[in-house]
Amino acid sequence: MKIDINCDLGEGFPHDAEIMPFISSANIACGYHAGDADTMRRTIAMAIENGVNVGVHPSFNDREHFGRREMILKDQEYYDLIMEQLTLFDRLVGEAGGEMKHVKPHGALYNMSARDPQLAYIIAHAVMDYNPGLMLFGLSGSASIKEAEKLGLKTVSEVFADRSYQPDGSLTPRSLPGALIESEVQCIRQVRDMMQKGSVMTVEGEYIPILAQTICLHGDGENAVSFARLIHGIVNS
After folding, report:
1. Is 90 exceeded by the pLDDT of residue 183?
2. 11 lies in which domain range?
């Protein structure tokens, strides 16, 4: 099976149009951590024009911290947070003549649900209630994937081309040195290892197993366009 390439877009960074031809799935911000209705419409249209799968990128309602600050909410508030963003985004996709294909939580919401089975269940439950045909993108091997699969939701195990890994399979927090991969050589090596060997080297220099069904790169990265081009070349070689 050909590996999907996804990117977080519609977040106000300048390279979305340059990245779009090299990816197969777009995770589009829906105004809670970045973007607005106009940005969503433009990015959705761009994805449709390029034949890229349209997905929603829900987050905490926290523009000040770009959705990267952890927030503790009640279970119903988490559920409503997801449902509100799916509803809003899906309406705009429909107006553009497209179809929402997948859901990928953003930032702190993504990382929290990767390690917290209860939050993972709530998010998966909201997605299932909204549309059981949607796919949920989650960190490979995480609670996000496991809880969604228990509900019968289709999952896509995500790996990262531009982030380093901890020994437990989690992403290195952005607050720590080496969290971001900025070298093309390192990016290529990591992508090839994940695709060809089913493993990834951690920050401690040891390999751990990993399932790669979609490869993510971030649209806000300094090397986003060059990384997108390189990854596209590897996947399609």
Report:
1. yes
2. 4-158+212-229
